[in-house]
Design goal:
Blueprint (H helix, E strand, L loop, with lengths): L2 H10 L9 E2 L9 E3 L13 E3 L4 H5 L2 H4 L4 H20 L5 E7 L3 E6 L8 E2 L4 E2 H7 L3 E2 L17 H7 L1 E10 L2 E8 L2 E2 L4 E5 L4 E8 L12 H14 L4 E6 L7 E5 L5 H11 L10 E7 L2 E9 L6 E6 L2 E2 L5 H20 L12 H5 L2 E8 L5 E2 L5 E2 L4 H19 L1 H35 L19 E6 L1 H10 L5 E6 L11 H5 L5 H7 L16 E5 L4 H17 L1 H5 L3 E4 L4 E5 L2 E5 L2 H10 L5 E4 L8 H9 L6 E3 L5 H12 L3 H11 L9
Parallel strand pairs: 4-14, 18-20, 23-24, 23-25, 25-26
Antiparallel strand pairs: 1-8, 2-3, 4-5, 5-13, 6-7, 9-10, 9-13, 10-11, 10-12, 14-15, 16-17, 17-20, 18-19, 21-22, 26-30, 27-28, 27-29
Helix pairs in contact: 4-6, 4-7, 5-6, 9-11, 11-12, 13-19
Length: 675
């Protein structure tokens, strides 16, 4: 059989032929042309221009390709390889994926797909598998019959992982043989050779992250990988994914994920993991297929006041939404209002329900698959295909309207919740208007206890939200008045997880925070009106202080989330101990540091344990906790919104048992709290 006959046969069998391992003629990478540092008096000429070849650009600027070289980027390497295997599953050729964390934090990913083609790529004069692993923008995802649906849009995943690994080994089972090749830091270390015979097909990739790139850590966290792989199994009904941790031979951990229920199982899991009480017995599930596009939706209502909508396109989590999510939300609101009018839930004089009313207590997953996915942004966080809006919108309207008509008791329960939400929204609007009129009459919109700073530019200012009047007094006296504002809080704070917006707006403990920050809350939140660049929570280092921090973080997450997303929220770290000997003293932030300071001062020291911020005088509070030159603060970031939502629901929700289980499981991580 000549090459042409072989290629035609492979295309007929819908395999990935070598010629479909495509690559772009010209790779345009922002940092491929790098201006070298030169002294001021040196001539700037051609010798100062460096051209990075091949995978050098990836190693030079890894953050461009995997987001960061911290823990998030480290785990992203695994996702890139697993996503290639999932693309094989989407194409209908893979049913099993095995992921292993081996000793030394080596990762192994094996699938039973078709196997990466090993035939020569004539354009590159290299085996196709070598091209896939060493050339950016190379793969079977740029057209043709290789992959009709793929999340790996840019074709850089495998080659980037190779470039950022100390070594990578690939084994391909295909055509009756097992082929193997090794790479070191992206370079070919051995030629592709046959190492055995087999009747199976598939690809095995093993790699060790390069410590020269991942200087912070190369240690994989099982829980982080577990969340991502479990999510992938939910999105691909029937696909079996196995995760094993083999780093400790005496404590091997193994988890298998396979969900025949697909998105319905996903919604069930999301509800249970948040300890929420469902309003109906089973998730509402429907799907639609039109030509080369399909949409699948599952949704369920619960007794909480929050919504959780997760959207995906070709298995990529579109965290910023997109056309498919817009279609879902628009149609959902239209169904509620049309059904409500038709069956007299809404009277002629009633206003229409808003989108927020219809989504209160909603958990939903929207997943679409299409051949030419157009993602916006480097992180592929938003779907841009306009044709997906009418597809999803039409499916939701038709299927959900039919479901409500066929299940009137479920519809009644859900509508009752939406109507309650609408009444609460109207009460919240009146509370806002009343607060605004009161502020206008009083002529001073700032809280009475706020000690504001004199600087007016928010770029340089910060506000300390302080637990208690005593600590607030010390903070006011010790602060830098030009840049630092102090807002003391006192009394029991509202748990917003169990309250609607109208209760939040009227709460006398939270209202001063809202007023001082100036952004508004909920649908009126406007980050551009933020009066301080840093919002710093400063509470005692005890259980009560931890509770106050959690209550405030819950409030910010639910009603002012951009504050966290844009990195404006911080947690102050006051010291736990003052270690003194004679005129010498030092502060310690942990038991271990206390013992170290005692040793450094020669032993037999006086130890002062700060049980509260109020025990510090203004000078001590300034030099330990508020001085920008010496203070330690934790910046609150949002790396996984879904996990954060689950944690807040679990910790601050109504159910005690799941919260107790969480505390017992994680108690070992708590340090230095007076219990």
């Amino acid at each position: 059989m000549d090459d042409l006959d072989r290629i035609e046969q492979e295309q007929e069998e819908n395999e990935v032929p070598a010629e479909e391992i495509a690559f772009e003629e010209t790779e345009v990478i922002e940092d491929d042309v790098e201006m070298m540092d030169t002294a001021v008096d040196e001539e700037y000429g051609a010798e100062q221009i460096q051209v990075l070849e091949g995978l050098e650009a990836v190693r030079k600027r890894p953050g461009m390709y995997i987001g960061s070289t911290g823990p998030r980027g480290l785990h992203h390497l695994v996702y890139e390889i697993v996503d290639n295997s999932i693309d094989e599953a989407l194409a209908g050729f893979c049913t099993d994926i095995d992921v292993e964390i081996l000793p030394g934090n080596v990762i192994s990913v094996r699938d039973n797909g078709r196997g990466i083609p090993v035939e020569m790529n004539e354009k590159m004069n290299l085996p196709s598998v070598t091209v896939v692993l060493t050339v950016l923008h190379a793969g079977g995802k740029f057209g043709g019959s290789g992959y009709k649906v793929s999340g790996g849009l840019h074709g850089v995943g495998s080659s980037v992982v190779n470039a950022l690994s100390e070594w990578l080994e690939v084994e391909v089972s295909r055509g009756g043989h097992v082929w193997a090749q090794r790479f070191e830091r992206g370079n070919i270390a051995s030629e592709l050779t046959v190492i055995g015979d087999t009747d199976a097909t598939g690809t095995l990739i093993r790699f060790k992250p390069d410590p020269e790139i991942f200087t912070e850590t190369t240690i994989y966290e099982f829980d982080v990988l577990e969340r991502r792989l479990r999510e992938s199994a939910f999105l691909n009904a029937g696909l079996r994914i196995m995760l094993r941790d083999l780093r400790d031979s005496e404590a091997i951990v193994e988890k298998e994920y396979c969900y025949e229920g697909g998105l319905s199982s996903f919604v069930d899991y999301l509800q249970k993991s948040r300890a929420l009480t469902p309003l109906h017995e089973h998730p509402i599930h429907f799907s639609v297929v039109k030509e080369d596009k399909e949409a699948e939706i599952a949704l369920m209502y619960n007794d909480s006041y929050n919504e959780l909508i997760l959207s995906y396109a070709n298995n990529v989590n579109t965290v910023d939404g997109g056309t498919h999510e817009t279609g879902f939300k628009t149609a959902l609101t239209r169904v509620f209002n049309d059904y409500g009018r038709k069956y007299n839930y809404l009277k002629d004089a009633d206003k229409n329900l808003s989108g927020d009313d219809c989504r209160e207590g909603l958990t939903a997953v929207v997943s679409v698959k299409l051949t030419e996915a157009q993602f916006e942004g480097q992180t592929k966080g938003k779907l841009g295909n306009t044709e997906m809006t009418p597809l999803v919108s039409g499916a939701v309207y038709d299927k959900l309207m039919t479901y409500f008509e066929e299940n009137p008791q479920v519809a009644k329960i859900i509508f009752s919740k939406a109507l309650d939400a609408s009444r609460a929204r109207e009460a919240a609007r009146k509370a806002r208007d009343l607060a605004r009129r009161k502020s206008a009459l009083e002529g001073n919109s700032m809280p009475g206890k706020l000690a504001d700073c004199t600087e007016k530019s928010s770029e340089f200012t910060e506000i300390y939200i302080v637990e208690g009047d005593s600590a607030g007094g010390s903070a006011k006296d010790g602060r830098d008045r030009q840049y630092q504002a102090i807002l003391p809080l006192w009394g029991k704070m509202l748990n917003v997880e169990r309250s609607r917006l109208d209760k939040v707006i009227g709460n006398d403990k939270l209202a001063p925070v809202v007023t001082a920050l100036g952004t508004g809350i909920g649908d009126e939140f406007n980050l551009e009106k933020l009066r301080y660049d840093k919002v710093i929570i400063m509470a005692d280092a005890d259980v009560d202080g931890a509770h106050i921090r959690t209550l405030l973080l819950t409030f910010f997450f639910r009603y002012m989330r951009p504050l966290i997303e844009e990195g404006h929220v911080y947690i102050a770290q006051p010291p736990l101990f003052k270690v003194s000997k004679g005129k010498k003293f030092a502060y310690a932030f942990s038991d271990e540091e206390r013992d170290q300071k005692i040793a450094e001062l020669g032993g037999s020291c006086d130890i002062q344990r700060y049980k509260g911020l109020g025990e510090m005088d203004p000078e001590q509070l300034w030099e330990t906790t508020m001085d920008p030159q010496t203070r330690i603060m934790l910046r609150v970031s949002l790396s996984d919104a879904m996990e954060a939502d689950e944690t807040f629901s679990l910790l601050m929700g109504d159910k005690v048992e799941p919260r107790r289980d969480f505390i017992m499981k994680n108690a070992k991580f708590v340090q230095n709290l007076d219990v």
